[in-house]
Write a structure and sequence with these properties.
Order of helices and strands: EHEHEEHHHEE
CATH architecture of one domain: Alpha-Beta Complex
Number of helices: 5
Radius of gyration: 17 Å
Largest sheet: 4 strands, parallel
CATH class of one domain: Alpha Beta
CATH topology of one domain: Ribosomal Protein L13p, Chain: A
Length: 142
């Protein structure tokens, strides 16, 4: 019996819709990262992109537990000396709510070219509207 290896042409990519309102950041990011990689499919192959597309709405209403709203800090660096900038979760969700979830999912993916391509299949929107109605996304299974 030979081990099955998925071929790129054989893979059926679906679209899933997730409403982030009231959901915990880390738990949701884990489900999304597994879906982007294709780990929820029987045909999962580590070196082939077997994942699906994920559309997330209401990213501005995502929840965190404990004191993370005030104590969790997001860092970014401009590349220049003294260019380190930091914001708390509350400030980041106020200014760029889509980046909070995108960074959480990115941290759960491997650091390689395949994962960078898989991250482009994540579409995050702050409000309830999204331009992907034509793809007819279905709810993400638990």
């Amino acid at each position: 019996m030979k081990t099955y290896s998925a071929k790129p042409k054989e893979i059926e990519q679906r679209w899933y819709l997730v409403d982030a309102e009231g959901q915990t950041l880390g738990r949701l990011a884990t489900r999304i990262a597994d879906t982007l990689r294709g780990k929820r499919k029987a045909v999962y192959t580590p070196h082939i992109d077997t994942g699906d597309f994920v559309v997330v709405v209401n990213a501005e209403k995502i929840a965190v537990t404990g004191k993370k709203r005030e104590e969790k800090i997001y860092y970014r660096h401009s590349g220049y000396p003294g260019g380190l900038r930091e914001r708390t979760f509350a400030e980041e969700i106020e200014r760029r709510p889509t980046e909070v979830l995108r960074k959480a999912v990115k941290g759960m993916l491997p650091r390689n070219r395949l994962a960078r391509r898989q991250l482009t299949k994540l579409k995050v929107y702050a409000g309830p509207a999204h331009p992907h109605e034509a793809q007819n996304p279905s709810p993400l299974p638990e």
